[in-house]
Design brief:
Elements (H helix, E strand, L loop, with lengths): L9 E10 L4 E6 L4 E5 L15 E9 L2 E9 L1
Antiparallel strand pairs: 1-2, 1-4, 2-3, 4-5
């Protein structure tokens, strides 16, 4: 397996999309790159987050792609 440079990053960004019904969202980091996430990756356990929230997060391999995980307030 090839090493992926996108895994294990520590980043900050803004929640630019979150659909509570399907439990999926996106965070846009400071460079404009978009990182998908599932609600179980929200660190406080609430499984919901406001669009526009400033967050810090890490990146990890989930299901079939790299996603934002351990999402916390910035």
């Amino acid at each position: 397996m090839t090493s992926n440079p996108d895994i294990g990053l520590h980043l900050q960004g803004v929640v630019t999309q979150f659909d509570e019904y399907v439990a999926l969202g996106e965070i846009t980091d400071s460079t404009g790159r978009v990182w998908p996430f599932h609600c179980v990756s929200i660190a406080d356990g609430t499984r919901t987050i406001d669009t526009g929230a400033e967050v810090q997060f890490e990146t990890a391999w989930r299901v079939a792609r790299v996603e934002a995980v351990d999402i916390r307030p910035a």
